[in-house]
Amino acid sequence: MTVSAALLFLPLVEGAESTVVGTPMEAGQPAGTVETTDRESLLEVADWDAAALLLIPVAVAAAPLVTPRRARRPVAIASASVLGISVILGAASVGLFYLPSAILLVVGAIRQRA
Predict the structure, then answer these.
(1) Rounded to whole angstroms, how far apart are CA atoms 70 and 68?
(2) What's the pLDDT tens digit per position in 12-71?
(3) Helix or strand run (H / E) with residue 60
(4) DSSP H or E segment with residue 20
(5) How many CA atoms lie within 13 A of 85 on its CB side?
(6) What does the alpha-carbon distance between residue 50 and residue 104 come to, in Å, rounded to a whole number?
């Protein structure tokens, strides 16, 4: 949950903008460009659609917590598998941020009493 909140609210998306300043014909003004960069949060860039997508790993990781005791181990194994595959598939974007959660799910599934 912490990872999803951080990805949603921290300014991680960088944008750049170039503006032409002056023209060669203007006296005393050198022509050139001004580049500005700004950072925005994922919430500012993608609105609440990003929040819905970032809730999926939270739901997958929380699934073993809300299942009955007798079904907890299979659900924990399934959750660890799904989150692990998601980490691998999303490694180019935000997938690696969820790697600690996937590792902890594997540890929890192994240590779960049958």
Answers:
(1) 6
(2) 777 777 666 666 555 555 566 667 777 888 888 887 888 888 899 999 999 999 999 889
(3) helix 48-62
(4) strand 11-21
(5) 6
(6) 24
pTM: 0.69
- Answer yes or no: are the C-beta atoms of 77 and 111 closer than 8 Å: no
Two tokens, residue 26 = 């203007």
The encoded tokens of residue 28 equal: 């005393």
Q: What is the DSSP letter of 63?
A: G
Residue 97 vs residue 18, higher pLDDT: 97
Enumerate the β-bridge partners of residue 18.
Answer: 35
**Contact in structure between 98 and 87 (CB atoms under 8 Å):** yes
* 3-state percent helix, strand, coil for the chain, nearest multiple of 5: 60, 20, 20
CA pair distance 70, 111, nearest whole angstrom = 14
